[in-house]
Amino acid sequence: MESVKFSAEVFDAGYRRTDRITHSTSRAGAGVGLRLGNSGVARLTGGYERNRSTPLISSTLEGTTRDSARFAQATVRFDTLDDSDFPRHGYVVEGGATSLRYNDSLDSPVQTYQATLLAPATFGRLTLLGIANAARSRDDRGGFGLGGFLNLSGTPVGAVSGSQAVIIAGLAYYKLGGLLPRAISRSVYAGFSLEAGNAWQGRSDIRYGQVKKAGSIFLGLDTIIGPMYLGWGHTFGAESAFYLFLGRPTDQLGSGR
Fold this sequence. Notes:
The chain is mainly beta. It has strands spanning 2-11, 17-36, 40-58, 65-79, 92-102, 110-123, 126-137, 144-146, 160-162, 164-177, 185-200, 212-223, 226-235, 240-246.
């Protein structure tokens, strides 16, 4: 049994916050996995989930909403990275498909697909990292969000959302060495990113001329509790933000389902 609870903000077309909701998901299921060579794994999982959303601050939502669904998910991942936090060599290729059959529409499942590519190249102390993520819903009912550090930096998390989403990012980071005591951080990196992407409500709305562009500058610390980033990001023609981020921002690319 798995339970996840988080708060999320809802935005209008001008990136103004209109609502804040708490969403919780309880999921029970089972899965099987298969090794693919030395670097790959395929997984198939299925089960049942219950969802609950409650508005904390709202101008458009009223009351708590609940739903439940049966789910099935298949993923394939190949991972040869030398370091999952600040990789210098290797690659990650991952693809997956999810089907959700809500109890009020068992004959019409929500089907989504997602693919990710991550590949670094290192020259001495300098690493160049390319990241691409694409996500789509087969019938425009799924939802994927962009925004946040390295995910259209400067844009609020979840401010750009839709059933079709693409984000591409190029990072460059330079290893400065052990500037801090090893008990705090093994290495410090200075870097920047260039990002492009957008999300559209439906397939018929996709216009590649509407791709948003963003960038960031940052310091990355390889700490004993995980990667930490201090940075500033800006989406051109939109907003800017300062970041203190603990974790892997690449894990959030195109988040949603």
